[in-house]
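Memo to structure team: turn this sequence into structure tokens by end of day. - J.P.
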Amino acid sequence: MRSSNKVPAINAGSTADIAFLLLIFFLVTTTLSNDKGIIRGIPAPCSDGADCTMPLNERNVFRIVLNAKGDLLVNNEITPLGDLKDQMIDFLKNNGDGSCLYCFGKGSKTASDNPHRAVLELSTHRKAPYYVFIEVQDEITKAYTELRTSYAMRTFQKELKNLSEAELVKTRDAYPFNLVEATLDTRE
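Reply from structure team:
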């Protein structure tokens, strides 16, 4: 009997091919998350010859300022994020007639003349925490959703998701989304 101390060789010629095929397999079968940003419509451009400047009554502007530390100032008063939605709702739905629940009656400085004239102005410092910016955007969306849901229930006796296209347009027109966003000057 003859014994050999040689170890049999393994053919590694196709190893690179197998690795390449595995790489292609994982690239094809892997799903990449498709993160979406904040869905907002860009306003239509001003048509030629039209005057697109609109003078605003100071009473119809709801100012939200987010500073570099993430503090929220609403109409120059420090405000907790949890109060933002209710303040926006009161501002938007008052119609200048003292009908809001938390306002001080007709002529209140905390309410707009009409939802169609109301404008939300969001000014954000460049160094503001991103998560706070997103939370503010969420509160704005919640306020409009609550107002529109309430309108749909009063007017059509339906939830938003059950409205027809025409009813949805009418609901959106009742509380138009007027948001102006700006970045605060960061010069120090």
